[in-house]
Each structure stands twice: as C-alpha cells, then as structure tokens.
Automatic annotation (TrEMBL):
<feature type="transmembrane region" description="Helical">
    <location>
        <begin position="87"/>
        <end position="106"/>
    </location>
</feature>
<dbReference type="GO" id="GO:0005886">
    <property type="term" value="C:plasma membrane"/>
</dbReference>
<protein>
    <submittedName>
        <fullName>Otopetrin 3</fullName>
    </submittedName>
</protein>
<feature type="transmembrane region" description="Helical">
    <location>
        <begin position="565"/>
        <end position="585"/>
    </location>
</feature>
<comment type="similarity">
    <text>Belongs to the otopetrin family.</text>
</comment>
<feature type="transmembrane region" description="Helical">
    <location>
        <begin position="191"/>
        <end position="211"/>
    </location>
</feature>
<keyword id="KW-1133">Transmembrane helix</keyword>
<keyword id="KW-0812">Transmembrane</keyword>
<keyword id="KW-1003">Cell membrane</keyword>
<feature type="transmembrane region" description="Helical">
    <location>
        <begin position="380"/>
        <end position="402"/>
    </location>
</feature>
<dbReference type="InterPro" id="IPR004878">
    <property type="entry name" value="Otopetrin"/>
</dbReference>
<feature type="transmembrane region" description="Helical">
    <location>
        <begin position="298"/>
        <end position="324"/>
    </location>
</feature>
<keyword id="KW-0472">Membrane</keyword>
<feature type="region of interest" description="Disordered">
    <location>
        <begin position="465"/>
        <end position="494"/>
    </location>
</feature>
<keyword id="KW-0375">Hydrogen ion transport</keyword>
<keyword id="KW-0813">Transport</keyword>
<feature type="transmembrane region" description="Helical">
    <location>
        <begin position="534"/>
        <end position="553"/>
    </location>
</feature>
C-alpha cells in the first residue's frame, strides 16, 4: 500500500471536513482533534503492518537457520545427524504448511470482505504454468523415489517412503493454492496469514537447500556398481542391493532426470509466495488496475524466431553429442571443445542484442512506471540474485585458469567462455530490467487499425478469387439432381472439382493470414519491431541454455581443470551452489523477456 493510499482520510474525516468553516483560505487542520485521530489511526495501521512483516520475517529466518543447521550437521557429521533426521524435520514443516494452506482455502479466503483486491501483476500465466509443470515433475520424482525405496524396503528406513509421500500431498496442495490465490491481497487475519506464508517460504527454501546439497542417490549408484564388480571378483559383501536390476535402473534414471525440476519448483513457489506476503493488507486503487492487459501474440517478429530457432537446434545437437560422448566408456575432450565453441559464438550475439535493445529503450524515451509493484520489484531482485550463481562460478574459473596455464587451448576456451558469460549476464539484466520499468502504452487502437486496414487490403487484393469460389459453390448448389446411373468419369470429375474448391479456399485463407501478418509487421515502428525481434531471439536462446545444464551438461565440473585447482570438495560445493541458480536465472529471464516482448 503506497503512502498516498495510506494517507487518505477516512470517511468520518471527509464528512467532518466538509462541514468545517471555509471563511479563511488557510485552515490548520492539525489543530482539530478528529484530524489528529484519523492520522493516528492510519499511522497505527502502518506500524502494525511493519510489525507484522518484521515478526513473520524473523519467524521465517529462525526456521531457515534451524533447517540449515540440521542440513549442515548432516553434511559434516552424518553419524550424529542423519538424512532421516532432516527428512523428519522437513516433514513436520510440510504438515504445518498443509494445515495452514487448508485453513486459508476453507476459512480465511471465504470470510466476508477477505479478498477485495487482486494484484493484476502477480501470478502471471507463465509463472503459474511453471508451478504446474515443475510440480508435476516433482510429483513424478517422488513417485520414483517411493518405488525405488519400496523395492529396497528390506534394507531401507520407512522414513524414505513416508517423506516423499508427504511431499506429493504438499506439492499438490501448494500448486492448487498458488494457481487460484496467487493474486490475492488478503484483508483479514493479516499476521496469521503473513506467518503462514513465511513458514511456507522457509520450507521451500530448505527443500531447495537439501536438493542442492544432497547427492545420496549418486553415491548409492556408484556403491552398487562397485558391489557388482566385487561380485564378479568373487567377494561377497552385505551392502543393500536391488533384487530387480532393470526396475531399479528405471527408477534411478527417472529420479536423476527429474531431479533438477524439484529445485526449480521450490524457487518458483518461494517467489510467488513472497509476492503474496507483500500483498497482505494491500489496497489497490482503481487507477492502478489496467483496463486492458497486453496479450502474447506472435506478431512483428521474423528474424528473431529464425535466429533463435537456429541457435536452439544447434544447441540441441551439441547437447546430444555431449551426452553421448560423456556416457561412453572413453570420453573425449573434443565434445567439450565443441560445447565451449558453441557458447563462445552464441553469447556475444546475445550480448550485442541486449546492448542494442538497451539503446533502443533509451531512444524511445518512454515514461518510467513508478507505481508500486511488488512483482516487478521481486523480478528485479531475482534476476540480480540468480545471476550471481553463474557470475560467481565464472570468476572462480577465471582465477583457476589464469593461475594454472591460460595458454592451453582448452583452458583458453574455458577462459573466454567465463568472461563472455559474465558480460552476457550483465547486459541481459540491464536490458530486461530497463524494459520492465518502462510504462506500457496501450496499442489497442493501433492493433484495431492494423486489423481493419489489413482486412481491406486483403479484400482489394483478392476480389476475383472470392467471386470464383462463390460462383463455383453456387454452381454446385444449383446443379440438378443426378440421374440414377452416373458414369465413372462424371463421378471422378465431380470429386476433382470439389477438391479444387477446397484447395482454393485453403490457399485463400493462408494468403489472407500472410497478408495480414505482413501488414501488421510493417505497421509497427522500427523501434518496436527491433525490440520484439531481440526479445524473441533472447527467449529462445535462454530456453536452450536452460535445457542444457538442467539435463546434465556440466563441462565446468567435468573438464577437471578447476576441480584439480580447488579440490574436489570445494569445487563440488561451488558448482552445486552456482548451477541451480544459473538454471533458475535462465528460466526467470525467459519470463522477463516475454514481458518485454509483450509490452514493446
């Protein structure tokens, strides 16, 4: 709630001030008791809001510190604090969050005057779609974990089945809650709602932290491989082995494939819940509610989709080559060279596009949107914070490469890759943040003008074909009934004429759509066309750069250079912290770039 909204006088003050004498032009309202009373009420509301936010924030901080202490203790001393202990703590937090979400759905949100305002900027369709998609993948991940633990139930703890079972219920309930209520500006039970939201945020952050630091399944797979080798050597051991190797491999591969989506789900849910927390008690005036929302339409772009699709196809080929080579018995360094070369070509193109887009934003001279918007503020913070993952890893890599042997061909490629990645992150952040803060000019009249003129143009261009089609249809409709005995040639001729008419209609519709698209493209100004081309190109590039590390392309860890410099444990911790943030940055950049494209 902005200061202007907070400082509005209440109805009693308005009615009282209307009856005050207006003999003099200067009236000292602060002398009136009623004015002082109304002002103190609003100040108390503001203080209560700040106090509620502070208390709920401190509650979440304590929950995060407690969970982080458990997870850290498990890492450094897995005998005193085991993974099962961490799962029990997180299960308790999940159950508490479930109780609060159910209470919000059935109690708080159904109270009279509970949801008087809804934030139009919060809960965009791509964010809710991400919650739904990543939630489904996380559910499948838990299903694979339950199946794998059920097969090995004879040597595993029951907690390994209970924890993912509670996780499935938690994911389903939270996804439903965010899909339907992410735009709510709740006006009742402020403090209780804030505390519930903050505890849910803390739980998601702890789940993300556990997913980043926990590598138990990979270690277990390696131990099983060593167990197989010992069996072939004739040495019997008592490790936990799978009775059905095929089913276990299916569960293991599915778990490893879906594992990154769980981290993305936790981060996206945390961001949506934070916006809801900021919107608790917020009152939105009608001036801040847009009459028309910009919608995504594939118009005004030609070169951006072509270049972006080409980059995505080449990236997919590099990704498949990398996966085939890395999983082979004798991995080759040539595929790492190809991977770095692909990035070295693509990253400068993305940086140049972002710089040109920033210059065009400066030339447009649009007004800045200064209205209070928690969603936009959070988008900016998340873009800057998530970019620290890739930037931090790049700086660590630069120091290691320069200190060892920068003249080596592979080292020089890795060094160029790290430098270009830093520059690309910075330029893209500047372009996206600058675009998010530009005031959107409604282009509804322009679009209508383009549609009407496009229709007139098509009508002028295609008069003859329409008449031909109508005449042919009239001829078919006016033909006398056929005789009982038709020759084969007449039937073939009739079928051919019908196919010819349908093909003419199809070609006519395609030509109309093409002419309308070309007219719309030419009707836009060159600045808007350039911004849309750049935004769409960067969207496709960020999608392929999200896919590659998400599904296991990690040459920064597998090339061995930084690992030998920092040591396995240190570099593993750096990569485990930076890679999930880098993946989240690419996904979040896609959402920001789509908004820049729509509002261009």
């Amino acid at each position: 709630m902005s200061d202007k909204e907070v400082s509005k006088p209440c109805h009693r003050c308005k009615s009282r001030s209307a009856s005050l004498p207006t003999e003099t032009t200067k009236i000292h309202y602060e002398e009136f008791w009623l004015f002082r009373h109304c002002s103190s009420v609003h100040q108390r509301d503001r203080h209560a809001q700040k106090a509620g936010q502070l208390f709920s924030g401190l509650l979440a901080m304590n929950v995060v510190f407690l969970g982080s202490a458990f997870i850290s203790s498990m890492i450094f001393n897995n005998v005193a604090i085991t993974l099962a202990d961490v799962w029990i703590l997180l299960s308790i937090l999940k159950v508490l969050c479930l109780f609060w979400i159910i209470y919000y759905l059935l109690g708080t949100s159904r109270q009279p005057h509970a949801v008087l305002y809804r934030d139009s900027h919060a809960g965009a369709i791509w964010i809710r779609g991400s919650v739904l998609l990543f939630g489904i993948c996380s559910i499948l991940l838990n299903v694979f974990q339950i199946g794998y633990s059920t097969i090995l139930v004879h040597c595993k703890s029951k907690v390994e089945i209970l924890f993912p079972s509670i996780g499935i219920i938690f994911i389903c309930t939270q996804a439903y809650f965010l899909w339907h209520h992410s735009k709510d500006c709740i006006q009742v039970q402020h403090n209780f709602t804030r505390c519930g939201l903050m505890v849910t945020i803390a739980t998601n952050l702890l789940l993300w932290l556990l997913a980043v630091t926990n590598d138990t399944l990979h270690v277990e797979i390696e131990s099983q491989l060593r167990e197989v080798e010992r069996r072939f050597a004739g040495n019997e051991t008592t490790l936990c082995t799978c009775p059905n190797t095929t089913i276990c491999k299916v569960f293991q591969k599915g778990y490893i494939l879906l594992y990154p989506f769980n981290t993305e789900y936790c981060l996206v849910c945390s961001s949506v819940l934070y916006v809801m927390w900021k919107n608790v008690g917020r009152r939105i005036s009608h001036d801040h509610i847009p009459n028309t929302k910009p919608k995504f339409k594939l118009q005004g772009v030609v070169f951006g989709p072509l270049l972006g699709t080409s980059a995505a196809i080449i990236g997919a080929c590099v990704f498949m080559m990398y996966q085939i080579q890395v999983t082979s018995l004798v991995p080759s360094h040539q595929v790492i060279v190809i991977y770095y070369s692909y990035y070295i070509v693509l990253l400068p193109l993305m940086s140049v596009g972002a710089v040109i887009g920033t210059i065009i934003h400066a030339l447009e001279k649009k007004e800045l949107d200064t209205l209070k918007n928690p969603t936009r503020s959070l988008d900016v913070v998340l873009l800057m914070a998530a970019a620290l993952g890739q930037i931090g890893m790049s700086y660590f890599s630069i120091v290691a490469l320069v200190a060892t042997d920068p003249r080596d061909p592979l080292n020089s490629l890795a060094l160029s890759y790290s430098v270009l990645l830093i520059f690309q992150n910075i330029t893209q952040n500047v372009f996206v943040i600058d675009g998010l803060h530009r005031r959107h000019v409604a282009a509804a009249a322009e679009a209508r003008h383009a549609g009407h003129s496009g229709q007139h143009t098509v009508a002028v261009e295609l008069p003859g074909e329409e008449e031909t089609t109508l005449n042919s249809n009239q001829e078919h409709s006016q033909t006398p009934p056929a005789k009982e005995e038709h020759t084969k040639e007449e039937q073939n001729h009739e079928a051919y004429s019908q196919r010819r008419v349908s093909m003419l209609e199809l070609g006519q519709e395609i030509r109309k759509a093409s002419l309308s698209y070309i007219h719309t493209y030419s009707h836009l100004s060159w600045k808007r066309r350039a911004l849309r081309e750049i935004s769409f190109f960067l969207v496709l590039c960020n999608i392929i750069l999200w896919v590659m590390p998400t599904f296991g392309t990690h040459p920064i860890f597998e090339n061995g250079m930084e690992r030998s410099f920092y040591g396995y444990s240190t570099w593993f911790a750096i990569v485990n912290f930076g890679l999930p943030l880098g993946v989240f940055y690419r996904m979040h950049s896609v959402g920001g770039l789509l908004e820049v494209y729509v509002t261009a």
